[in-house]
Amino acid sequence: MSAEISNTDGPLNSRTWEIDREEGRTVQGLKDASVEPLAEPFIQVPDDLQGNLVVTSVDALINWSRKAALWPVTFGLACCAFEMIATAMGRFDIARFGMEAFRASPRQADLMIVAGTVTWKMAPAIQRIYDQMADPKWVISMGVCATSGGPYYGSYSVVPGVDHIIPVDVYVPGCPPRPDALLFGIMELHEKIKKYRNMGKNARPPISEQVTRQVTQLDDGVPSSSTNSQGNP
Amino acid sequence: MPVQTLTGEDLAQRLSEGVPASVERWEDEVVWVEASKVEDVARFLRDDSSLDFQFLNAISAIDLIEYFDVVYHLTSFRLKHSAVIKARVHGRESLSVPSVYNVWRGADFQEREVWDLMGVQFEGHPNMKRIMLWEGFEGHPLRKDFL
After folding, report:
1. Which residue has the higher pLDDT, B143 or A1?
2. pLDDT mean values, one per 10 residues, chain B (147 residues)
């Protein structure tokens, strides 16, 4: 965000108008650009290595180490987050999978559990956190809201599935899913990670090539009539 | 001791004494006040010792097609009674009611929410902008004609 709060007098909303409008443009731009869901993601392979190496036993070792210490990013949106927290507590004990370290920084995490309803206003933040995570990274869509919008499908403010803004590996249905269901989803993700081929002829194309989505900014038009009537500049 | 809801008749009588020409009409437990006098009425309801409505429960709005009702739910913890005040604004465009932000600070977000979802402006509010939807969103989604 480049705009700043101006120091001129007047009500707060007229001073933050630039910021609000820029945020609104980002949200609307993402909404307009995200009509189709994104494809399932695959792992990134450096270009110079692609097709040159076949190292299957190393693949297995790398995949095992990735699946055995999958650190999720601390990130909850709605009631599903409580089930995610319960999954991390002693009774269900996510530590059995080497996952007890919920990282506060996306830089240190490789799994994002999207737990809850994704609204369009939250969508740019989710996309930013996803972009900040280092490859390889995985996403679990937890609950029907994150999967398809759930009870809010067709709503004016809810994303019809988080796969419209970030690529999703595993979908866990439920409203909210019990910790058992989330654990099952995590184990399915482990199976998926085990099957990755990072190098060699059958390696998957890099994530960045598949999931790039250009957010089209709206034109600098006149604000709509509903915002005009606020008396903003 | 349960909270007693003041009757509309009683409340209307006290209001018309405290704030002249403020009452439009009343029903069982509701009083409609002049939309332009909402802030004066609110201040009277809060400061009068026999009413003492220190607490604003909620501000909401009802879309009744030809007009909107802005609803104020009030409670007095000391006297253990509550009241419902409504202000009627006619039309569908550029609707406006005086803000009660300076009477009850808790009105801040609720008035913004009413503006965001119903499209009723509150004059004198220090930060009258959308609260949940983003700037540039078309329309007000809880209106009957939205879609």
Report:
1. B143
2. 85 86 86 90 90 92 92 92 92 89 91 92 89 88 87
Mutate to test the interface with B, among A20, A22, A226, A227 (most CBs of B within 10 A): A226
- Which chain B residue shows the shortest CA-CA distance from A231? B128
The phi, psi pair for A138, rounded to 5°, reads -130, 155
Block residue for tokens 């930013």: A128
Q: How many helices (H) and strands (E) does chain A have?
A: 9, 3
The dihedral through the CA atoms of B85, B91, B95, B98 has a sign that is negative
Contact (CB<8Å) A25/B136: yes
- B69–chain A nearest CA distance, Å: 19
Q: What is the model's pTM?
A: 0.75
- Judge contact between A152 and A162, C-beta under 8 A: no
Q: Determine contact, residues A137/A99, Cβ cutoff 8 Å.
A: no
**Beta strand residue intervals within chain A, DSSP E:** 111-115, 138-142, 170-172
B121 forms bridges with which residues in the sheet? Answer: B96
User: What's CA A113's distance to the chain center, in Å?
Assistant: 8
pLDDT at B2: 86
* CA nearest neighbour of B99 among B78, B61, B128, B136: B128
Q: Do A120 and B129 touch (CB under 8 A)?
A: no
Residue B31, strand partner residues = B26, B85
Max CA distance (Å), chain A: 67
- Does the structure show a pLDDT above 90 at A177? yes
pLDDT for the residue numbered A52: 62
Does position A209 have pLDDT exceeding 60, yes or no? no
Q: Which residue type is seen at A42?
A: F
**Parallel/antiparallel/unpaired status of strands B30-33 and A111-115:** unpaired
Identity of the residue numbered A44: Q
Cβ neighbour number for residue A35 with a 10 Å cutoff? 8
**Cis peptide, bond prior to residue A176, ω within 30 of zero:** yes
Query: Which SS3 state, helix, strand or coil, does residue A12 take?
Result: helix
